[in-house]
Design brief:
The chain has two domains: 112 residues, Transcription Regulator spoIIAA (2-Layer Sandwich); 143 residues, Rossmann fold, CATH 3.40.50.620. Helices cover 44% and strands 24% of the residues. The chain is of the alpha/beta class.
Length: 270
Amino acid sequence: MIIETRGDVVRLSGALHKNQWLTIRAAAGMLLNEHPNGIIIDCANLDEVSEDGAKTFLEAMRDIDAAKTRIVVASLPDNVMRVLKRIPGVRSQLPIAESVEAARASLGMHRRSTANPASPQATKGCAVILVPLMAEVDLTYGADLAARVARVNRSEVRLVYLLEVTRTLPLNAPLVEQEQAARESLTKAIATAQPYSVPISEHVERVREAVEGTLAAIKFHQASQVVIGATAEAIGHSDQEDPDRFHTLVETLLHRAPCEVLIGRLRMQQ
């Protein structure tokens, strides 16, 4: 087997007949020093893989979990995928992307979310106002509401998108459509908050369940306030939104959030 590195990619070629993870890990480790937010293992040129060779990916999965890094496996040929499916736990837990481009887009989302300081401490001692965002419910009005409060109180706004990952997939699995939705939601929320000239940061938290993930995000970011702002549609005036998710989120925060909770609704057009 041939192992090559270029940019943020480790490329594997040839036949994989035994566990080669120690060798691949050495190459991956060098790339992670230059690309700490994640790298890609490109398997497009793997000709064949034995069951012993497939254990390479089992070892990779364990190291990825232990190191808390993002290593995405891309472009697995069908014959290689068939072998991986015979190894218990590998297919369901290994982060796999259809292509290098899809893997890079997923890592790009991670880089975007960590471009701001990752420390849960507030910027220069500012109090933190957390605004949760999630799929299927338009909560981006919260960014406007939070920014207005932050301007008065000299606080920092943190926009946190809760990206839900089903338990049948590894938490770091590339999710093209969901990640695109996260980008669009964060872009919309930032545009809403920017005119108020307050400190704003954006984050993506990969969670198994969005409401519980919101509570965890409040604690991690040490938020003094959490702001929920919704359109009338999100509350239940349109079939395009999911009012149950909104109501569950609000009820949970009112009963369990360890901070102040501010809930607002966008003014309805007369």
